[in-house]
Structures are given as structure tokens and as C-alpha cells.
Amino acid sequence: MIEDKNQQRTQLSDLGEFGLIDHLTKNFKVKQTSTIKSIGDDAAVLNFKNNNVVVSTDLLVEGVHFDLSYMPLKHLGYKAVIVNLSDIYAMNATATQVTVSIAVSNRFPLEALEAVYAGIETAAKIYNVDVVGGDTTSSKTGLLISVTAIGEVEPSNEVYRNGAKPNDLLVVSGDLGGAYMGLQVLEREKEVYKVNPNNQPDLEPYTYIVERQLKPEARKDVVKLLSDLKVKPTAMIDVSDGLSSEILHLCKQSNVGCDLYENKIPLDPQVISTCEEFNIDSTTVALNGGEDYELLFTISQEDYPKIKANPSLTVIGFMREKEAGVHLVTRAETKVEIKAQGWKNFNA
Ligand code: ADP
Ligand code: MG
């Protein structure tokens, strides 16, 4: 898409570094009262009064975390912000600011960065966070984008990974596996396109899962819901690497075991039908797929009545003593040990 001949291509060097920063950031308006000084000085100044501050960073690298042949640049900007906000919400905190750092090679015109920033701006608006700084530099190999998210939480309201207790319930928001199956569809269409560029992909039957991959959302709403329901999770993590890996994190850090029930794992009908089409097991996809950005948390059993009627929350398991281990209880009621997956990015 950045090769489109009809599109204007303004060389980044025409603007210079400061002109570029100005141009990209001129629309950002301060919304949070905690933002005292935003873009334009040597550092941003923030004031959180008596709240605790949470900070999280992610780095996205072209060719490793995203493929520009099917990832529109606007979506990339949006997703780069979302994946970071998700980490803030996983602490049971409110996201308030982000900083955005980019490295670009000269194969990207100004219009490409404008598209990335349009996505960043949209996410910042929807999630009510201020963009308060960043860094801009050149790269020889492609596009890198790093976002740091900042949030606040009332002292003692933060939720760590290490608080789960035996007999707690394991709960997940939304549904799982969609982002991974969306990626499978996009990869297949890319191969088809390589063979015949006149072949227009029909993504209609896959709209939900493609959107889960290209335009994920962070579960700000779930943090609010839990607060409204007066439920404080005992432990929480966001689902970025896949359910099995996140469960193992919770169990390891909390020193507990877990039984995960295969028949409880929430799956969208489009995930099920696409798994059938690709001949992949949907449980494997939910366990190892990743990038769903749902919240996975444990609650004490006393809190079950408060959440049980909620359609966006599903109880999928039961925490146990550490000695019991971490298992998937299959539909056939056999127990399979859940094991750590390797790190995808390095395995390839
Ligand atoms: P310095 O030389 O001190 O690093 P810069 O010239 O890089 O300062 O940045 C000037 C201002 O613009 C700072 O407030 C910085 O945080 C902000 N900024 C730089 N690059 C970006 C970017 N890509 N997105 C948002 N803000 C940026
Ligand atoms: Mg700088």
C-alpha cells in the first residue's frame, strides 16, 4: 500500500526531524488532569497525587510483530497503543498517558507516518489517554515502533500475577483464538495474492477474526465492570501470548496449580468454523494462539455470584494446590499437563 503510485509521497528529509515531530504531534490535545507538561520540552511532567503509577513498554518490529503487506499503517498505530494499554489494565489500573517512539527507513514517506499517527490518535481518543512524548529516529531495515504506557491506580487496588489462591476461580473475558485465526486467513490471502495479484481476497466470512488480528481492543471496560461489581481479582494478566502461557505465569508466580476445562473455553463461532476449514484444533488455537488481549484473572469463590450473569466473563477453571500441577481437563475428561511453549519470535 505504501507503494501506491497514486498516493502522494513526501520525503521525510523535506521536513527535518523537528518539522516531522511537530507535524505528527500537532493534533494531540491534553485530556488528563495528571498531564502537567506534554510534548515539546525535554521531558513530560505528570502529577498523580496520591495514586500509584504503573508503567509498561512494548516494542514492535516490522517482520517480527507485523507484516505491512496486510497490516494497514493506521491499524499498526492503533494496535501499538492497544497492546500497551492492555498491560496497564491487567494491573487493574487506569491508563492515562503514552509515549511513542518510532524508527523509520527512508522507504517510508511522510504519508505513511501520518497514517500510523492517525491510528495512534484514534486509540488515544477512544481510550482517553494523552500522547505526552516519544522519540523519532531513522532505521536501516524497516519500521520499529515502541510505546510506553503510563497509568494510575489507587494504592492497594493494583492486581499482580502472584495473588491466586487454591480454590479460586479462573475467569477470562471475551473469547479466545480469534486473532490467531485471523492471522492464518491473512497469511493465506497473502500467498494467494503473490501467485495472482488480480485475485481479490474475499474476507467477508472472516470479518470478526481479521478484525481481532488487525484492530484488537484492550479491555478497559472489564476493569470498570469489575470495579462496578466490587470484585477485586486475586491475580490478573492479559492474554498476549496465549492462554496456556498466561495460566503458567499466574500459577508459577502464585505458587498454585490449576485445572482448565476445555469445554468452558469461550470461542467465537467464526473461530470454530475457520479452525474446521484449516483443519486445526480450536483448543490448541485458544491455548497457544495469542494476541487476543483479553483479561485472564482469578477471583475468590465468594465473588462468583457477582460475575456469573455477565456475558463477557467466563469461568474456565479452578485453581488448585501447587502439587496438583497445571492441567487441561479435556472434553473426554482426561487430564493433560499444560506445558510452556517456546518463544514464538525466536523459534521461527
Ligand atoms: P530530545 O532531543 O530531547 O530527545 P526531541 O527533539 O527528540 O527531544 O523531542 C522533542 C519533543 O517531542 C519531546 O517532548 C518528545 O517527547 C517529543 N517527541 C519526539 N518524537 C516524538 C514522537 N515520535 N511522537 C511523539 N512525541 C515525540
Ligand atoms: Mg529525542
Automatic annotation (TrEMBL):
Signal peptide: none annotated. Pfam families: AIRS. Mg(2+) 4 binds at D42, S56, D87. Its EC number is 2.7.4.16. One of its GO terms (biological process) is thiamine diphosphate biosynthetic process. It comes from the Bacteria. Mg(2+) 1 binds at T57, D58, D135. GO terms for molecular function: ATP binding; magnesium ion binding; thiamine-phosphate kinase activity. It is an enzyme of class 2 (transferase). Substrate binds at H65, E291, W343. Residues 40-153 form the PurM-like N-terminal domain. Keywords: ATP-binding, Kinase, Magnesium, Metal-binding, Nucleotide-binding, Thiamine biosynthesis, Transferase. It catalyses: thiamine phosphate + ATP = thiamine diphosphate + ADP. Mg(2+) 5 binds at D241. Mg(2+) 2 binds at D58, D87. Pathway: Cofactor biosynthesis; thiamine diphosphate biosynthesis; thiamine diphosphate from thiamine phosphate: step 1/1. ATP binds at Y117, G134, D135, R161, S240. SUPFAM superfamilies: PurM C-terminal domain-like, PurM N-terminal domain-like. The keyword Nucleotidyltransferase does not apply. Mg(2+) 3 binds at D42, D87, D238. Reaction mechanism of ThiL seems to utilize a direct, inline transfer of the gamma-phosphate of ATP to TMP rather than a phosphorylated enzyme intermediate. Catalyzes the ATP-dependent phosphorylation of thiamine-monophosphate (TMP) to form thiamine-pyrophosphate (TPP), the active form of vitamin B1. PANTHER family: THIAMINE-MONOPHOSPHATE KINASE (PTHR30270). Belongs to the thiamine-monophosphate kinase family. This is Thiamine-monophosphate kinase. The lineage of its organism: Bacteria, Pseudomonadati, Bacteroidota, Flavobacteriia, Flavobacteriales. The gene is thiL.
